Amino acid sequence: MKHYARLLALGLGLGVGATGFAQIIPLYSGALNSTPDAQGWLYQNLPAGTAVVTPPGGSGYTTLNTSAAYLPYAGWAAVTPFNLDPAAGFRVRFDFKVLAEDHGASTADHSNPPDGLADRAGLSFIILGSDKKGIELGVWTDEIWGQTDTPMFEHHQSQERGFVDTTGVGTGMAGLNRLDVTVIGGNYSVRFNDNLLYSAATKDYTPFVGAIDPYETPNFLFLGDDTTSASATFQFSYAEVELVPEPATLAALGIGLAALARRRRR
């Protein structure tokens, strides 16, 4: 939690007033030269040791490789120490770059009846609000798309998808992409490098039952490979949440800023 406190202090210092008194709270920064699990995230790899994590080492990003024959589940999860309230609205940002992805089209089509379109991705992002609703995004090298909840975890051919180049342009930090997912009310929108891909209704995955089941966890974030039907190698450099504070929070924040201003004048 001390890493969250450090990042939270940074966010409060930088984010107030940028977008109508919103709070921007960093949740991971590769610039700190450590992996997400050293900054408050939980890292899991099943079976243990089947994925490869490369720390930043001065590069500014962590690399995860799950290409061991589709075998591993691996990634980072976080339960935020604050509410991701869809009624007020929030935005989650991830900076990343896909180096390689294989979703095994012959084995990953789980639609019933099969529709010829793979339903899994080697890189996924899960964003769940305080109401346990949200979105799981599948990421390929050329597409970002939303997993359905009715039927559960399918990839529709005609909706909730955007065709983009997630491999980036150039190398190193210059090739990283920015993904922004905004949730407000019962809807979410996806922006990729500041371009709107699509908007749709948030999903309810709570009926899912499985050995690994995070979908009943409020205020939950995940990035990584959560399937044995696909694999990926990707770089991850930054994550943040933008919140609209509740009135009481704004009032307390205003008092703090006023006190700081008086102190500076002295």
Global morphology? globular
Order of helices and strands: HEEEEEEEEEEEEEEEH
Q: How many distinct beta strands?
A: 15
Oligomeric state: single chain
CATH topology: Jelly Rolls
Number of domains: 1
Q: Measure the end-to-end span.
A: 34 Å
Number of helices: 2
What does this structure look like?
The protein has helices at 2-15, 247-265; strands at residues 23-29, 42-46, 52-54, 62-65, 73-79, 90-102, 123-128, 134-139, 143-146, 161-163, 177-184, 187-192, 195-201, 220-225, 231-243. It is mainly β and 266 residues long. It has one domain: Jelly Rolls (Sandwich), CATH 2.60.120. The strands form two sheets. Strands 1, 3, 4, 6, 11, 12, 13 and 15 form an eight-stranded antiparallel sheet that branches. The two termini are 34 Å apart. Mean pLDDT is 83; it is low at 4-21 and 247-266.
